[in-house]
Amino acid sequence: MPSATLLGQALISGVLAGGMYGLLGLGLSLSWGLLRLVNLSHFALAFLAAYLTYELGTNYHVAPWWSAAMVVPAMFAIGLLQHWLFDKFRVNELASLLITFSFAIILEVAIQLYWTADYRRFETHYSTLSIKAGPFYIPVLELVLCTVAGVLAWGTWLWLRRTYVGKALRAAAEDADIAAAYGVDHKKLAYLLSGLGAAYAGVAGTFIALIATLAPAQIWTWLGVVFAVVIIGRLGNPLGALFAGFLIGASESLAMAVFSPAWAPVVSFSVLIAILLWNPEWA
Amino acid sequence: MQHRTGVWRRRRVLTGLAGAGFAMAVGAPAIVRAVPSGKPVRVGGTLSLTGFLAQTAVIHKIAAEMMVEDINSRNGFLGRPVEYVLLDDQSKPDVARSLYEKLITVDKVDLIQGPYATAPILAAMGVAQRYGKVMIQSSMGIPKLQTYDMAFPATPFGPEPDKTYPNVLLDMMASFPTPPKTIVVLTSKFPSAQFMAQGMREQSEKRGVKVLLYLEYESGNRDFGAIAARVKEANADFLWVGSLGLESNQLLESLRKLDYTPKNHFHLYPAPGPLALSPDGDKALCSTFLEPDEPFMSRPGMKKFAAQYTERATKANLPYTIIDAQACGMISEWQILEAGVNGAKSLDDKAIAAWLKKNPVDTVYGTVRFDGPFNHGTALQLVKQVQNKAWKVVWPKEFAAPGVKLIAS
Amino acid sequence: MGVSATQSLPRLAAAGAIVLFALLPAAGLPAFYDSFLYLVFFWISLATSWALLSGFAGYFSLGHAAFFGVGTYTTATLTTQLGMNFLPTVPIAAAMAALLGVGIGAVVFRMKRLRGELFALLTLAVTFVVATIILNTPIDGGAGVFMSAVPLPHILPTATGTIYMLGFIMCVLTLGIAWSVVHSRLGMGLFAIHDDEDVAEAKGVPTFRYKLAAFGLSAGIAGAVGGIHAMYVGFLTVAGTFELSVPLYVVLMSVLGGARHWLGPAVGATFITALLYAFISGGEAMVGRAIVGLILIVAILWLPEGVLPAIKQWLKRRRRLARPETRAAVVPVVPPAAQPIKDRSLLEVRGVTKRFGGLQALDGVDLDVRASEILGLVGPNGSGKTTLINAISGFYPLTSGSIRIDGVEIGQTPAHEIARRGVARTYQIPRPFANMSVLDNVSLCATFGGPARSRAEIRDEAMHWIVFTGLDGKEEALPAGLNLHERKFLELARALAARPKLLLLDEVLSGLNPAEIDNAIRLVRAIRAQGATIVFVEHLMRAVVELSDRVAVLNEGKLFALGAPREVMRDPRVVSIYLGKAYAA
Predict the structure, then answer these.
(1) Contacts of C29 in chain B (CB under 8 A)
(2) Label partner for A261 (CA 20 to 30 A): which of B46, B284, B374, C574?
(3) Cα dihedral sign, A82-A84-A87-A90
(4) Which residues pair with B242 in a beta bridge?
């Protein structure tokens, strides 16, 4: 039986690692839940942002928070552009999945053409800092990530809730005419939301650059688990996505601490299956 | 070297299939061509230029192009220039199989070269076997899978690396000032890594080194926090990691976040650049076959290859431009093929295979033989270590660069 | 050109293509073409099998790699670990995958909410779970499975020829299955499920069984394809087999070609496979991949329904220009004299209660409807009229009580069984199957609701009711091309085509103008004259009084009043609940 220290440490690492799932899930959950658009290129955008952060940091010595100030608005603009395409062609849920899949392939190639397929690492002196708390260690960068993710998720949640924007968008997803009755210009809001989703991918990308090592094919490694996270967190619910991220991160990590680590991927997907079967109304 | 461009590259082979009435377009390969005399000898092969194996394909491509030029700057193959016909297998074995069939039956290449990584190699090997082609491959870490008698390894793993190489490591460990008594074996569930990890566990136990923890994690594992916590808790004298790509970096960073530095740590097949340059990579041990140092630099051609490789890798915008065992695998592949052709004085596959089985070949890896089981010869797998952010061969001692010593704690 | 010639031409072409491809290995083409075509066949089979469930019935799955992978590893395990011959493992691979599919379906299809993205995600999750299990058990264990020692059967002299032939046979089988599904009751039912599952069930389609059948077929084919592909690949790894790009490409291919057509996925698969092979040379591989992505985006944006449907549309338009539509003559409907009302009760409702959480929608309703009677069902909004219709037609299971048709209890019977017992209904807001023509809409209801008949008879029956409801000339139109009035009549035609004993009409008159209402009233009379028993919910009092033999008034889920129309309507209690107390006083 593993010791309490090991379990506690695994729990801390897992929750913090889950923050990344939540952060990546945030934008995906918004566009999926409120606009009925499944954006597979979300991950590719996050990696594009990560590569840009790497490029600015390594070759021009720009600190990541400054590069984020450039990269995140750029991602916002890409989000608007994508939405323009979806809007112009009245793209439905299924088509959005396939179009963004193709778009992700193009982004993957673009990244490979410029940065090659070889690994890129943005070395910083603070990437492995951690705080000691009793017998446990709390990695600083992940803590910052979770804080940022928390602020974004909570802020978005408040915005959606307090201003009835969320209800209007949800109604628009069902029936655009009824939505007009809310007196909200849902078209403009949809653009704003698509932009925000991509901007959140940009934020996630900044942290990916700091925490992970980059390779073009890694775009696809997050897809499964983040999909599970946005469904478990209920589509269109930013706080839900974040907490689901924590939940999945923690349970994967505990599974790795107790069982053979190779079984860990079963955890998140079993949780997803269990929740859907237990309560199909969940998502 | 010059790439054929324009019309040549756009050439399409159109095959009309009358009844069904559809035509498929198959792109003509990019052709590397040298200053010729006579009809070129065409050598075909695939690399995973796109997809999840693409990191290493660039390295192999650069090395192969270098070698074709090198061979053409001498005699070519039997006085004829060599043309390298390179296709992209998209990191998929089923595509690799069909492309080798294309190279052999449509493009009608004279000879073939192996692709990279176990699954594409085995897919290509099946094709080579059906058409009786010699196939030299550089990177299949499980020799017993090489069941075709005209397939030859360019990298000297030896027939049973899961037995021999762990003992090289255990010998090294025994030479430490305080020999490790306990070990943690971690491995990616990637066939070749897992194969070696299981060997390491067995051999360690045989030689009285206690295996405190044996863990397998999914290849492409994202979060190493919990695994690191288990490694820290086990706190063994030696950490053995069957890693690929970046997994070692991820693990070491996770350990650092727990304020834990493993006493001695070994990594199987990590990406060399990121590990050498990482602040956590210091004193990391790793498997290798050679590094650009003495005594290896004295091997014929090696100085030139090392310089050329760095120049081209820089031009290709690669982050790590020092020649490594990966690139040398491809160099060795071509050296063996060249020796086979020259030795047999023929482009006939059977003749080349027969010659290779009987004769040793001098490669950048030293003298390699193909007279053992699975056409493998002597095992020459060595140990290197990160010292001052560069890889240095440290074990066995006779291969260590002058003045370089194994640093153990 | 005669009719028989136009019909036999595609068959001849299909037979010709089969013979041609079967003989192709003998043509002595380089082996690469065997392999390339094998891969085309492979993707055609996978994409087509995906479409059987996901394209036809609209249950969009991202889990096709799971079934394919289960098949692959079944063959791998049986041949390498148990020493079986390769060929017999293929049907076992199919069976294992089908079992997994049916198993998932048996759980998931009982939950109405698990459609759309949730179903897609669920199947994706199953893929990851299956992959992890195979990776961590001796089935693979992480070492991979090397198939080189497994002998390939000698179907043709060369290995590539044999693989080609296996892939080809699988492909022909798959397309044959897809074709016969499309042209069967199963296919018709699946298309209806795609458009509106609840309505399909109410029209007599056994939706649960059909979905299971489609899932089993779809997964089974994928499993067999996987079994064959294990031999082609030669060295299997979990990561390579359960790759995410497998389901994504399968979906892309199907949608691009047209997922609702039996041949659509084949067109998409051929196109995309050829496209991926167009850029294989070392120099252009990367840019080629981007070009593939770009072409796919453009294709999906411009042809959202798929290539094949777009071509069909175009051909149809051309043909329509070429020759004017000719229609079969239809016998005009002459309403006979009204049938007398019988003493026998056709419908017996006893103590029916329906609760939704805390809401008591029906509270102990007793009601008898006699054969050949027209019963008007009225009451204020929320009084339970539509709930009662839903309960009788089986949309909701009862909380308590009993409902009998011709003395047979149907209170807990699934809706499609009730439909087959002769109960048909219309919807207040018409719910036609959006992707089916008017004729197909009506034919489906005749097929699943009425007695068993030949295809031609069903067509005649459907045309009869189309003419009866005045929709003639619109039979090829899609519901979107009808106005509200026509859609209401389409609802009627669909209900009538089932030749119901009991017809439940839910506000057929709402939203119509006075002339259309008169028309509709005439129709209802004509229906009644043919002997059907009718229960109709209506707000329009004029119609209620004109049509009903008796009127039942529901209030707050209870039967409030029952009797002759004029008497009930004059009852002050009824007036008060309808118009409020002040009005009555």
Answers:
(1) 15
(2) B284
(3) negative
(4) B187
For residue B242, the SS3 value is strand
Query: ipTM for the complex?
Result: 0.90
Q: Which of B203, B159, B163 is nearest to B379 (CA)?
A: B159
User: Which CATH number applies to C30-277: 1.10.3470, 1.25.40, 2.40.160, 1.20.81?
Assistant: 1.10.3470
Q: Locate C176 and state its tokens.
A: 């044959």
Q: Mutual orientation of helices A186-211 and A165-174 as an angle, nearest 10°?
A: 110
Which chain A residues are Cβ-neighbours of B226 within 8 angstroms? 9-10, 13-14, 252-257, 261
Q: Is C563 helix (H, G, I), strand (E, B) or coil?
A: strand
Q: Where are the domains of chain C?
A: 30-277, 345-422+500-584, 436-495
Dihedral class, residue A90 (left if φ above 0, else alpha if ψ from -120 to 50, else beta)? left
Interface test with C, best of A99, A100, A103, A223 (most C CBs within 10 A): A99
Q: What pTM was computed for the model? A: 0.91
Domain containing A154: what range?
Answer: 4-115+141-278
Nearest Cα residue to B404 out of B307, B296, B243: B296
Q: Are B354 and B135 in contact (CB under 8 A)?
A: no
Rounded average pLDDT over C336-356: 82
> For residue A272, which residues of chain C lie inside 8 Å, CB to CB?
121-122, 125
Indicate the SS3 state at residue B283.
coil
B187 vs C286, more confident = B187
Phi/psi for C28 (5° steps) reads 75, 25
CA distances for C567 relative to C541, C561, C585, angstroms: 13, 10, 18
DSSP H/E element including B183: strand B182-188
Burial zone of B332 (CB within 10 Å; 0-12 exposed, 13-18 middle, 19+ buried) = buried
Give the residue carrying structure tokens 């050598």: B43
| Joined tokens for residue B401 | 């660069």
Q: What residue type is B396 in one-letter code? A: P
How far is it, in rounded angstroms, from Cα A226 to Cα A208? 14
Contact A13 B245 (CB under 8 A): no
- Is the pLDDT at B10 greater than 50? The verdict is no
For residues A39-56, one letter each, b for 16 or more C-beta atoms within 10 angstroms of the residue's C-beta and e for the rest, the string is bbbbbbbbbbbbbbbbbb
C431 contacts C199 by C-beta, under 8 angstroms = yes
- The alpha-carbon radius of gyration of chain C (Å, integer) is 29
Closest CA to A261 of A270, A252, A271: A252
Mean pLDDT of C74-93: 96
Number of domains in chain A: 1
Given a contact cutoff of 8 angstroms between Cβ atoms, the answer to whether C310 and C303 are in contact is yes
Answer whether B225 sits within 8 Å of A222, measured CB to CB: no
Identify all chain C residues contacting B99, using CB atoms and an 8 Å cutoff.
280
Q: How far apart are CA B219 and CA B118, in angstroms?
A: 14
Residue C330 has what pLDDT?
A: 44
From start to end of C345-407, where are the E strands? 345-356, 359-370, 374-378, 400-405
Domains detected in chain B: 2-155+321-375 (3.40.50.2300), 161-288+382-399 (3.40.50.2300)
B25 touches chain C (CB under 8 A): yes
- Listed range (B365-369, C125-129, C328-332, C503-507) with the worst mean pLDDT: C328-332
CB atoms under 10 Å from CB of C305, counted, come to 16
Answer whether residue A184 is part of any domain: yes
Residue C267 backbone dihedrals phi, psi, to 5 degrees: -60, -50
Of the listed ranges A115-124, A169-178, C357-366, the least confidently predicted one is A169-178
Interacting residues of C426 by C-beta distance below 8 A, sequence separation 6+: C488, C491, C492, C494, C495, C504, C505, C506, C508
